[in-house]
Amino acid sequence: MFSRVAVRYDLLNRLLSLGQDQRWRRHLRQAVAQAPPGPILDLAAGTGDVALGFSGRRVVGADFCLDMLALARNKTPRRSHRIIWMAADVQALPFRAESFSAVTVAFGWRNFPDPAAAFFAVHRVLKWGGLLAILEFHPVEGKFFRWLHKAWQRLVIQPVGSWLSGDGEAYRYLPASSRSFLQVDELAALSQRAGFGLVQRRRLGLRVACLSVFRKGG
Ligand SMILES: C[S@@+](CC[C@H](N)C(=O)[O-])C[C@H]1O[C@@H](n2cnc3c(N)ncnc32)[C@H](O)[C@@H]1O
């Protein structure tokens, strides 16, 4: 599915978030600015919009979709030696234990087959005291905001997404997956079981998205 929508993915992100998605990704990057020194893993990196925005840090952008990674590589400045793109599935991360000082995941966690196991996988590759920042769409809280969001999904995201990507199934799945994903507190509870502590939470874009930041070791 991600291969099928890859080519129009960036354009649709800008349109369907009314230009807000890059601002949300900036918040995600800022959230790990205080991480201990060392490389950063941007997991479920997609077309690279999070990873490419880090400056002065070594970054690995990893994703299991090669078509997404190919687009990320095309967007990478030619002489950039600080960023590496890697094919990797969260279910079998090909990195040594404690390789990274921070891990970022934007709009990826709700697609992982086992969100609880993903916390253990990320915990293994993070250094002690390292930060995990997750930007994600959760079920929207509050009657009014839920209604507004549902209307936006039905009237804009599904028709415009289907039309521009040519993939109706994907743009039905993407909104539906945010409605059926974990609540923010449920995500935090899963993180605790793997050994993380919640350090920051911030709702973004009329409560549509949420940035959750966790530290390995609490
Ligand atoms: C909605 S896109 C988000 C891409 C990017 N992080 C962004 O900010 O636009 C979700 C990404 O998660 C990747 N993904 C889904 N399941 C994955 C898995 N099990 N392992 C690695 N990547 C995965 C998909 O290939 C896709 O690129």
Structural class: alpha/beta
Bound molecules: S-adenosylmethionine
CATH class membership: Alpha Beta
Q: How many beta-strand segments?
A: 7
Query: What portion of the residues fall into strands of 2 or more residues?
Result: 15-25%
Helix coverage percent: 40-55%
Supply the key terms.
single chain, 218 residues, alpha/beta, Rossmann fold, seven-stranded mixed sheet, binds S-adenosylmethionine
Give an overview of the whole structure.
The protein is 43% helix and 23% strand. Helix 1 packs across helix 3, helix 1 packs across helix 5 and helix 4 crosses helix 7. The protein is globular, with a radius of gyration of 17 Å. The N and C termini lie far apart (36 Å). The mean pLDDT is 93. The chain binds S-adenosylmethionine. S-adenosylmethionine binds next to loops.
Report a brief summary of the structure:
The protein has 218 residues and is an alpha/beta fold. The chain has helices at 2-16, 21-31, 66-75, 115-125, 143-165, 168-179, 184-194, and strands spanning 40-43, 59-63, 83-87, 100-106, 126-137, 196-204, 209-216.
